[in-house]
Structures are given as C-alpha cells and as structure tokens.
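Thread: quick sanity check before group meeting

JM: Hey all, I'm pulling together slides for Thursday and realized we never actually wrote out the predicted structure for the chain we discussed last week. Dropping the sequence here so it's in one place. If anyone has concerns about the input, flag it before I start.
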Amino acid sequence: MKLLIDKKKVLTFSALCLLSPLLTACGSGSTSQSVDTSLPPVKNAEILYGEKHDKLSVIKALHEKTPDDAMIAARYGKALREAGQFKSAKSILLPLANNSEVATLANTELSAVYLSQAEFGKAESAARKAIKADNRNYRAWRNLGNALDAQEEYKEGEEAFRKALDLWADEDKVPVMNNLALNLAAQGYTDKALTMLYDAQKMDPNRVEIERNIRIIRTLNEPPEYKGLKIPTPKNKAPE
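JM (edit): ok, ran it. Output follows.
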C-alpha cells in the first residue's frame, strides 16, 4: 500500500534518528598519565569498515609515536569523531581522503562527521569516495543513504540502504533496517515500512526507537477520516 503523507514531517523525525548510530561517544581518557599503546591484532576488514573502536587515549599516544602511519592516523580520526571532537577529527582525516591504503575508512568517517554537522552534500560526497575505494564498505553505503535521505533523495537513499543491508552482518543490521523503514515511510510506503520495523523488532526487541517509530508510522497509516476524530462523551457520563 502506498499512502501519500507529509514527507517533511517524517523527515524531521527521521533526521533525529538516522544520526544516532553515527555518534557513539566514548570517553577521551587522560593523556597526562602513561598509557599502554599496545593494540591487539584485528582483521583488516574490521578496521577498514569501522568495526574497531579504539580507546582515544591509547590510539592518540600511538599516533604521536608513529605519525606517518596512515592506518593509525585514520583510526585516531575515527576515535576523535566518536568522542564528538569533530574539528580535530577532520584535521586528521582530510589529509587521508586520497590515501589508497585508508581511503575507504577515512572518507566513511568524514561522511559521519559531516552528517553530524548537517552538511549533507559533503557527507554524500565523502560516502561516495569511500564506496569508490571499496564498494563492500557497508557503513559507507549506510552513510550515503543517510545523506541522501536528508536531502530528500529518497529513492536513491533506499537503494543505498538496501545495499548496506545486503553487505551487513545479520546481528548488526537493525539500525539500518530502522533507517530504511523511515525512508520507505517518507516515500509513502507505510505498509512496507511497518513490515521492516516489525522484522527489526523481532531481531532486537529491546530497541525502544523501533517501537516508537512503529507507533508514529502506524499513526501516519491511519485513514484520514480517523485522524483528529473526537469521540463524543456519553451524556450520562462526566468527562474524565
């Protein structure tokens, strides 16, 4: 069922939700004390696709010891972004945007920074650069979907979200399903949006934003004649 709805109303709510997976803040820690800069080995894809979350104090110290290591620098920029230090993150990540070794990670993180600052055109451009460097980078596809959604390019945003879902690990894809559902609702496909949200809820019943979005989209899906309808109070009963 396709239902014409107020896209701006849905988009306003969508914009509040779609950024939340990007802004996972972590404590900056203290750099005045000695820190252990040894890092456990991690898989290359885990790093390049942003799965690895480094402690900011540790990765900062390591970057200071090895300033020419592009991978460490990109991971440091990611940790700064996750800590909400966007200006510092950009200063680290921008010089790495064209470095073939870390281009997909650096540009994915830059797109996340731009999304958090509502610079959606720049976020789209950075996400596309990340995908050009590695088209299996599911987080870059997710960020591209978010950037396109924010610019009301819903159909292209849907395609980006679906690509992210195809590549994402099953246990991690609930936030993307949530964003895709909001995208579908913005296009007027409220039945499809609800189906997507119900599937996401089955995968992770504890996510309160899923339940909240279900309630909102169910309201949008109500026939117009029921919206704002006042139920008359029986004459023999006082209003509660």
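AS: nice. Residues 1-5, 7-37, 226-240 have pLDDT under 50 and may be disordered. Residues 15 and 150 are 7 Å apart (CA to CA).
JM: adding both to the slides.
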